[in-house]
Specification:
- The protein is α+β, with helices and mostly antiparallel strands.
- Helices cover 55% and strands 19% of the residues.
- The chain has 2 domains: 199 residues, Hypothetical Protein Pfu-838710-001 (Beta Barrel); 280 residues, CHAD domain, CATH 1.40.20.10.
- It has an 8-stranded antiparallel beta barrel with strand order 1-5-4-3-2-6-7-8.
- α6 packs antiparallel against α12, α10 crosses α12 and α16 runs antiparallel to α17.
- The longest helix has 36 residues.
């Protein structure tokens, strides 16, 4: 058995020529080119896939090489997985696999008798052997080709960095050097996983946030690392869809993922390394701004202008204003897509991943403050502080003071994210009830904030045109009853916030 440590990066097909000209590759100790054809096997019921086992045959000289891989989950594109190779002599042989659970599954009669070819990959690989520092060797592999199954094909264009010797930090240094000139982003979906999706005809969909696995007795930094890696995965899974620009939900989910990451950094700020936030906050702020501009216009068009345009379809003033806003939205989407396609985005993602894989977080030292020695104790203190701040802002909030309501909405959002982060430590029923209550409060105050900000943006779109300004007034009047109802409900919502009590940690 060998253990592979590799970093997989997505490369746009349009950037392949730029990658091949990268100065770092000219300093390679060696360069090798080969064509690789592989066939992937599983049962019709996908018994191997459900257990994170991959079985393939790869053409090797005049014969075939059998490879079994296990635990192919990726942490921000970095994989550490065992694999077993053996010559294929016209039948599968799993006797050399020293992981008993893996071998036992593969040798089950229903598996061995049910194995069938599901998909095939064929690509050309260029491998550069880099030695960036004494004792460090990194293989850089560029794969270009396709995946095929059931008459369908999907392109392969990716870069993989495999650590032969040295540290993970040095692996990320090489990746960062490459990403400085070329748009390379961490790729969480392996060729095998893409093949399974192609075989099943599965269409990609926007991915929502999930809970990160954490334990009450864990070091707080171990928990932060798991939560932050989870946020990065949320970002990565929606990146490709956001670049296409067809479904605004991808941008929305990327914005949520970025907000959650920043909320986690605020939550764990007392225990984070001194320079952690300093390195990430400025570029994350730029990312939030790029995503936010598009998301805000999406909401304005779909939730504020759209309903009025549908109700007053014959009014040319509303139609003209909606058209101007649509043009502005498409232009802003283009700017956001360009931002996400630049090398800077991939470099930011690699920076975040390298920090999270660093020794200070992967193997943290005991905390000086014994009152926060475990996640349970740390979470209790942080949740209590957030709840106290939310209660305080609820006391200060007034219906006639929009900024005070906006500040309360942000506090509620941060409290909700914190509750979600620590959800695995909370009783399921009371956690679900509290999270739903906070989400409802955040949504109501968010609608008020959207209505409050809509007028200024629409007036910019209207310019000095009197007809378009009349359209803005019509839209404001149409939403008047909803705005009044939302304002009228504020006192009750403030009372709910003041009485809010969070569930106790298990």
């Amino acid at each position: 058995m060998s253990t592979q440590i590799a970093l997989k990066l997505g490369l746009p097909e349009s950037a392949q020529a730029l990658f091949l000209r990268h100065p770092l590759l000219r300093r390679a100790a060696s360069r090798h080119v080969e064509s690789l054809v592989s066939i992937y096997y599983d049962t019709r019921r996908l018994d191997l896939h459900r257990q994170a086992i991959t079985l393939r045959l790869r053409k090797h000289g005049g014969g075939w090489l059998q490879t079994v891989k296990h635990n192919v989950d990726s942490e921000a594109g970095l994989t550490t997985r065992p694999e077993w190779d053996a010559p294929y002599l016209n039948h599968f042989d799993f006797s050399a696999i020293d992981a008993e659970a893996v071998r036992r599954l593969l040798e089950k009669p229903k598996v061995t008798q049910g194995l069938t070819a599901l998909f095939e990959t064929s690509f050309r690989r260029i491998t550069w052997r880099l030695q960036p520092a004494p004792g460090t060797t990194v293989l850089v592999m560029l794969d270009r080709g396709w995946i095929a199954s059931n008459g369908r094909r999907a392109p392969i264009s990716e870069v993989e960095l495999e650590l032969v010797s040295g540290s993970k930090a040095q692996l990320y240094e090489v990746a960062s050097d490459l990403a400085a000139r070329v748009p390379l982003t961490p790729e969480l979906v392996s060729k095998a996983e893409r093949g399974y999706r192609l075989a099943a005809g599965t269409r990609p969909l926007p991915v929502r946030a999930t809970a990160a696995p954490i334990a009450a007795d864990a070091h707080p930094l171990i928990a932060f690392r798991a939560i932050a890696l989870n946020c990065l995965a949320h970002l990565h899974h929606n990146h490709a869809g956001a670049l296409l620009g067809d479904d605004p939900e991808y941008v929305h989910q990327m914005r949520v993922a970025t907000r959650r990451l920043r909320a986690a950094m605020r939550m764990f700020a007392p225990v984070l390394p001194a320079d952690f936030a300093e390195q990430l906050v400025p570029p994350l702020r730029d990312l939030m701004a790029a995503l936010g501009r598009t998301r805000d216009l999406d909401v304005l068009l779909s939730e504020i202008v759209g309903p009025v345009s549908a109700a007053l379809a014959d009014d040319p003033r509303i139609s003209a204003l909606a058209g101007i806003l649509t043009d502005r939205l498409y232009a802003t989407r283009g700017e956001t897509e360009a931002f996400l396609a630049r090398p800077g985005y991939g470099k930011l993602m690699l920076l975040a991943a390298s920090l999270l894989h660093g020794e200070e977080l992967a193997e943290p030292a005991p905390l000086a403050d014994e009152r926060c020695a475990t996640l349970h104790e740390f979470a209790q203190r942080r949740l209590r502080k957030l709840q106290e701040r939310t209660h305080h802002l609820a006391e200060l909030a007034r219906t006639d003071d929009p900024p005070s309501l906006h500040a309360l909405r942000i506090a509620i959002k941060r409290l909700r994210y914190a509750l979600e982060f620590f959800g695995p430590l909370l009783p399921k029923r009371s956690f679900a009830a509290a999270a739903k209550r906070l989400a409802t409060l955040q949504d109501k105050l968010g609608q008020l904030n959207d209505l409050a900000n809509a007028g200024a943006v629409l007036m910019v779109c209207a310019g000095t045109d009197p007809n378009l300004r009349e359209a803005v007034a019509l839209i404001g009047g149409w939403h008047g009853p909803r705005h009044a109802a939302l304002l009228g409900a504020v006192p009750e919502q403030l009372d709910i916030v003041r009485k809010l009590r969070l569930p106790k940690l298990k």
